[in-house]
Amino acid sequence: MTExxxxxxxxxxTNVSEAVHLAQQIRQAAEQSGVDHQCSIVLCPPFVNLSAxxxxxxxxxxxxxxxxxxxxxxxxxxxxxxxxxLRSVGCEYVIIGHSExxxxxxxxxxxxxxxxxxxxxxxxxxxxxxxxxxxxRQLHRTWNVLESQLExxxxxxxxxxxxVCAYEPVWAIGTGIAAEPPQIEQAHAFLRALLDAHGCTHVxxxxxxxxxxxxxxxxxxVPNVAGGLVGGASLNADSFVHIIAASIHARxxxx
Length: 255
Fold this sequence. Notes:
α1 (about 15-35) runs parallel beside α10, α5 packs across α7 (about 140-155) and α7 (about 140-155) runs parallel beside α8 (about 180-195). The chain has an eight-stranded parallel β-barrel with strand order 1-2-3-4-5-6-7-8, surrounded by five helices. The chain has a single domain, classed as Aldolase class I (TIM Barrel, Alpha-Beta Barrel), CATH 3.20.20.70. The protein is α/β, with parallel strands linked by helices. The protein is about 40% helix and about 15% strand. The N and C termini lie close together (about 10 Å). The protein is globular and about 45 Å long.
C-alpha cells in the first residue's frame, strides 16, 4: 500500500512573504514530526509565489505544485502560464479542472483534457479534479457527472502516465460542510471501479472538500481514499500538518 498524498491548495491567498513564512512553517513542522517521510506532501501556492516557495522547499521531501496551466507551450495567451514555465521553477504537480475553474471560468471537459495532455508533455503529474454540484446530486446525477468528466480522458493512451484523481463534491468546497463518510465511500468506490475498468489501477483517488483536523481521520479511514486535496486548512501550518498526520494514522490503522 502506497503512502498517502496530501495536497495543499492555497488558492488566491498569500503574498510572497506570507507564502515563504507558511512554507517554512509547514516544512519545519513536517520534518520535526517526521510526517514528511511517511506521506507525499505537495504545496500549491499562487503562480507569483512558486519560485519563492520552491526555494523554501529545496532539499526537503515536500513537492511543489501549481494550481493550473494552459494548453499550449508558449504564445499569445495573455495572463496564462504554460506547463513548461511551471516545470522551469521546479513544479512536479499541477491541479487541473478544479471546480472553481469549471464553475467560475467555465472550463469544459475538452479543455481540461488538453491541459492534462500538456502537463504530461512537460512531465508534470496532473491532479485531475472531478465532482458534482449540489443541484446535480439532488437530481441523482452524481454518477453520470463523474463518468462524463472522466470520459474524454479515459479514451486516450496518455492516461497511463502518472496522474492523480481528486473527488471534490462542489457543494462541500469552501462551505465548511464535508461530505459524510458514506457519501465519500460511494463516490470513491464508483471512481475506483471506473478507473480500474480502464486500466488505471495506478491512479490514487484523493478527497477534497472542507477537510479539517477534526474530520480528517474519519475521511481518510474511508476505503479508496488515498489522501486529500486541502484548501482553507492548508493555510495554517498546524492544521495542515495535523491533517497529514491524520492521513498517516488512518492508513496505518486500516492496513
